[in-house]
Design goal:
The chain is about 35% helix and about 25% strand. By secondary structure, it is α/β, with parallel strands linked by helices. A six-stranded mixed sheet has the order 6-7-8-3-9-10, with helices on both faces. The structure holds adenosine-5'-diphosphate and magnesium ion. Magnesium ion binds next to helix 1. Belongs to the ABC transporter superfamily. This is Sn-glycerol-3-phosphate ABC transporter ATP-binding protein UgpC.
Length: about 240
């Protein structure tokens, strides 16, 4: 668990400012959702927290440490993407343990971490299957399992459910909420889906054109939007 703080973070690609002066603090154990229309900078912001993208300005702190220039592996974060490219030739267990094996972790540690993740994600009966023998939801759970085995302080999710059908999305939302209760980690979840944001978030960060429009609980944003954009996006009349 760790607090995530962004201080005046900005990002430009060439002459295009994609993230503009974003400051915010996500508390330990909080489930924060970044929401906003396509292209507003959600993924870029998340990738900067993960260390997959350099900042153009500002500072990022995780658990009190300045990680602005730290390598991704040294930040204590694990990211789950929308396209959960699993290795097709590897079993579920091997997919989940890949990172730990590359890091030469002891066999017993790997087995216990994979076992624990499989239990949390109800994948215990599927550990020896290959990805092609799994449903879409099970595959996405394997991708989440890959993150869990790394014991991250912070989970970062980039639209992890957007490739799933509507029914499965609803089911996975419930599972992710449960995962958050079980693990208690800080989680940052990116989506362009208002319903996901409203149902999953402790606090929602509404982004527009690389800036924060409003931060608040789902109830705050729904009942007391700061402006017409937030009202329109979150869906309450004004
Ligand atoms: P979102 O995830 O909210 O849809 P992104 O963070 O992916 O938005 O993108 C924000 C903006 O930055 C978009 O206009 C996108 O085209 C631009 N962008 C993202 N990555 C790059 C890149 N590597 N090079 C140039 N522009 C980029
Ligand atoms: Mg994105």
């Amino acid at each position: 668990m760790a607090r995530v703080e962004l201080k005046q973070v900005s990002k430009s690609f060439g002459s295009t400012d994609v993230i503009r002066d974003v400051s915010l603090s996500i508390e330990e154990g909080e489930f924060a959702v970044f929401v906003g229309p396509s292209g507003c900078g959600k993924s870029t912001l998340l990738r900067m927290i993960a260390g997959l993208e350099e900042t153009s300005g500002g500072e990022i702190f995780i658990g009190g440490d300045d990680v602005t220039d730290a390598e991704p592996a040294d930040r204590g974060v694990a990211m789950v993407f929308q396209s959960y490219a699993l290795y097709p030739h590897m079993t579920v267990a091997d997919n989940m343990s890949f990172g730990l094996r590359m890091a030469h972790r002891p066999k017993e540690e790997i087995a216990s971490k994979v076992g624990r993740a499989a239990k949390i994600l109800q994948l215990e009966d599927y550990l020896q299957r290959k990805p092609a023998q799994l449903s879409g939801g099970q595959r996405q759970r394997v991708a989440i399992g890959r993150a869990i085995v790394r014991d991250p302080k912070v989970f970062l999710f980039d639209e992890p459910l957007s490739n799933l059908d509507a029914e499965l999305r609803v089911q996975m939302r419930v599972e992710l909420a449960k995962l958050h209760r079980v693990l208690g980690n800080t989680m940052i979840y990116v989506t362009h889906d208002q319903t996901e944001a409203l149902t999953m978030a402790d606090r929602i960060v509404v982004l527009r054109s690389g800036r924060i429009e409003q931060i608040g609980t789902p109830q705050d944003l729904y009942q007391d939007p700061d402006n017409a954009f937030v009202a329109g996006f979150i869906g309450s009349p004004r």
